[in-house]
Design goal:
Layout (H helix, E strand, L loop, with lengths): L1 E4 L2 E4 L10 H5 L2 E8 L3 E3 L1 H14 L8 H14 L5 E8 L17 E7 L6 H6 L1 E5 L20 H12 L5 E4 L5 E4 L3 E6 L2 E4 L10 H12 L4 E3 L4 H5 L3 E6 L3 E8 L2 E2 L7 H13 L4 E3 L3
Parallel strand pairs: 7-8, 7-14, 11-12
Antiparallel strand pairs: 1-2, 1-6, 3-5, 4-16, 5-6, 8-9, 10-11, 10-13, 13-14, 14-15
């Protein structure tokens, strides 16, 4: 494997940053997870735009232009001879000292691009559906650490994931501070009721996922009613279908929540149709490259 670090592509074992990097010391940086499908980087521009938005909010100056980062992403994929890949793109604050003062990191920001493969859930769960639970760890308050910022500080999500694993589950639902459904540890969540699609709004501590928005767009094109409003656990339990979306997860059906069977206890027709249509979109909506 080869990794891109600040303009250079190096071997995995040579991909190193300082132990004084604020990304390591404090999670002070931003990232994006992106997918490549058969030499097409899906929604690359949208991901890079979101990266810059996250960086702007935390007052992190990205040391390269959007075009440069897009070209560097393609360059890294080619260096690894990957037609299909998961891409992790990071920008750290860079090397400073042991204090919190970001002025000590001025001009040291690091751009890192890793291209590899990922399987967020076992393949069988895409066919049979996930069983998930609600966990005690709530989603960060937008006023504390806004979930719209894809920061390197993912401890909130990790703690919820630990709770799910300790309980014997692959995934966890995180609620917001008011007790409404926010999202899962690495995915957005959707429910289907009476052939209508529902998902929590981004203002409720939910990341505005790029896969999430793609599914909403597909549903509207298929004349499926889409609704972004607060969802309770009661509504989840009594939904006809449920599924999760994310760059790494893509679309994975949910068949049981907190011990309650969802719908018929198997992936539903709306979920299957949206997954089929999503796969079509990943073949055309993005930036193509050649190996």
């Amino acid at each position: 494997m080869k990794v891109f670090i600040n303009g250079k592509i190096v071997k995995k074992e040579d991909a190193k940053i300082s132990v004084f990097d604020h990304g390591l010391l404090y999670g002070d940086g931003v990232f994006e997870g992106i997918r490549a499908y058969n030499c097409l980087v899906f929604k690359l521009k949208e991901h890079i735009d979101r990266l810059f938005e996250s960086a702007h909010t935390i007052m992190l100056d990205v040391p390269y232009s959007k075009k440069y980062i897009m070209d560097a992403t393609i360059r890294t994929l080619r260096a690894n001879r990957l037609r299909n890949a998961y891409i992790r793109l990071l920008v750290t604050r860079g090397e400073g000292d042991l204090g919190l003062d970001i002025r000590k990191c001025q001009g040291n920001a690091k751009l890192i691009i890793i291209t590899d493969k990922i399987a967020l859930y076992p393949r069988r769960l895409y066919e049979r559906g996930l069983k998930i639970i609600t966990v005690p760890t709530i989603r960060n308050l937008p006023e504390a650490l806004n979930p719209q910022i894809k920061s390197l500080n993912y401890l909130n999500n990790i703690l919820a994931k630990i709770e799910a694993i300790n309980a014997g589950y692959e995934e966890a639902i995180m609620l917001d501070s008011l007790g409404y459904v926010a999202e899962c540890t690495g995915d957005n969540i959707f429910i289907v009721k009476n052939k209508k699609l529902y998902t929590p709004p981004q203002c409720m501590g939910t990341l505005r996922g790029i896969t999430r928005d793609t599914i909403l767009e597909i549903a509207r094109q298929k004349d499926i009613s889409t609704n972004e409003h607060v969802i309770t656990r009661h509504e989840m339990y009594n939904s006809d279908e449920c599924f999760l979306t994310g760059t790494a997860a893509e679309i994975v059906p949910v068949v049981n929540i907190d011990g309650r069977k969802i719908g018929r206890g198997k992936p539903g027709p709306v979920t299957k149709m949206l997954l089929e249509e999503f796969r079509k979109v990943t073949k055309k909506d993005g930036v193509k490259y050649k190996l």
